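Convert to structure. Protein one:
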Amino acid sequence: MGRKPKAEQEQVANRIEELRNAAGLTRQELADQVDVHYQTIGYIERGEYSPSLVLALKIASVLGASVEEIFWLDEEEA
């Protein structure tokens, strides 16, 4: 099996915005807790950026959810 062209690679979907809002956190507050710029949280929420494993684990910890509850491969975008 060959590697998919970049345009056909899987996209990572997430529930960060939903869980962040449920926790009563702003993008800035979540960003401060995981040590990134607030715009990075926005990029991740919109699916424009896939976080590193370390950042995904930090986000999951702050939001009180497992990585699998927050992130998944969006097969429809692949």
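Protein two, convert as well:
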Amino acid sequence: MVQERALPKIQSASAQITKEEGLVLYEDMILGRFFEDKCAEMYYRGKMFGFVHLYNGQEAVSTGVIQAMRPGEDYVCSTYRDHVHALSAGVPAREVMAELFGKATGCSKGRGGSMHLFSAEHKLLGGFAFIGEGIPVATGAAFQSKYRREVMGDENADQVTAAFFGDGTTNNGQFFECLNMAALWKLPILFVVENNKWAIGMAHDRATSQPEIYKKASVFGMPGYEVDGMDVLAVRAIAQEAVVRARAGEGPTLIECLTYRFRGHSLADPDELRSKDEKEAWFARDPIKKLAAYLLEQNLADQSELKAIEKKIQTIVDEAVEFGVNSPEPDASELYRYIFAED
């Protein structure tokens, strides 16, 4: 069983939200959860193929960070567990689902599939099949924002980039090289570690000489924070601070979110390595249930409003499946299209 780390000091008690903000967060998290549940259903029914890595349990990280940014304007760079990042970034559910079915109407035109979602319109820089691949891409996006603003004089180039990656990735070279570069150049980027305790089947504490990843930020002279990744308000609060710093030209931040995936590494993973007790302990900390309880306790919502959101999202997800199933396959005549830039 993975050793439990004490909860971070940053808690949601200090994170004040309005009713509107709370419902937006809840809707975004419900969209992620319902969408992933539907993906599992389609996969096990033999309607979806290839590798599919679901995000169930980690919704507070995607929602907390991306909703603290400017979706559609700021940049988001993901991993192979990218469906929910895409949804939080504003990519329509039907385009994401169609991509998972390999259809021409998908956000990557049916060329990418589950691990390679991309949307220029929504500033989604892509999902990447190999760990660490997205970090240099995100660092480059942050560099161009700074370059356009400070060298080319574009005052509107104040975009912030968020790079998401897992705990296993922080033992790779790209992580260290890009943190160093971002710190040197004070790039407007958030390095977001989704520490779900397991790198496929390797327990985090067995794979690194410093399990507290946020402490690695100090080596590069940048702020590093540990946050309860099952608490969307806590994640949002620290992400907001990091975004303000980045947009003000004060450089990068490393945020370690302690979270947990409720399913196996992928839908092909029998998930036999993690203990039952460990999983049940984390299931009890479901981030969606936690937010719902908070909204009800603070009189920011009632059960009927939450149920209405769930009904609305279920309709969106069902329609996304219908759209994906009925969309056309990519035409064979376009096999070489989208390989090179087009006029």
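The longest strand covers residues 189-195. The first helix runs from residue 19 to 44.
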